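Hey team,

Filing this mostly as a record. A colleague (T.K.) asked me to run one chain through the structure pipeline before their review meeting, and I want the input and output archived in the tracker in case anyone asks later how it was produced. No errors, nothing strange. Just documentation.

Input sequence:
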Amino acid sequence: MIVVKFLRLNEWKAKMPTTIKQALKKWEEATQRKAAESKEIKLIGVSPPIEKMEGPFHLLANLEKFSLSTNMISSITNLQSFKNLKVLSLGRNVLKSLQGIEAAADTLEQLWISYNQIDKLKPLRNLLKLKILYMAHNFVREWREFEHMAELPVLEDLVFIGNPLEEEVSPTGKYTDEVVKRLLYLKKLDGFPVIREVEEEETEEVSGTMDLQEIDRMANNADEDDAEEPGKPPDDDDEYDDEETRAPSDTEAD
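Output structure:
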């Protein structure tokens, strides 16, 4: 009877989730490093899995990259304890909401949350330093969620493939264009460089500027030639030439 109870107790303990405190202790033993002094910590695929973002985070003052992917975390909490966190990896968990991510807004530059169940992106609008967002295979279905990402001034790399919205729009051939026109600073989408079409008016303006620059260059060359031949007598067309060389400068002044 005692043996049966002991076995059941072990089975019960085995089913209990691992706490982050326990996981950090095992990480220190495996790496022979102190968590409190480390800039990067990986608690990936812990068994039994981590379910809650609770632990002695206040001790991780130096931490810049925290990897918690492939666990069973259901909510984002306690990020206010981190003072230098730049990269947070929470891919392959069971997140349904990004609520709580705003607590890392002062420092977070990269957020990896692919393979979760997230459908709303409003909490992202606070992450003004966010440069990279990997959120493939989530549940985003509406373009209006991009309004929140549009407020991120340095977001340049987005992985969005596998969301219902992407799967719906991609067959039409308009997916990339729709994303790019909403995220004006984006440089990379789903692993590919973003190529933006230059508007016709902008092209004409650039061409006009180049023409003025060319005229200036020619005028400067003419002035240098005159300087090399100080005794050259004036030609009949000198007055007209002077007006031509002065025109670009007057235009630019305006």
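Quick notes for T.K.: The beta strands are 40-42, 65-67, 87-89, 110-112, 132-134, 157-159, 188-189, 192-193. The chain has two domains: 12-193, 200-253.
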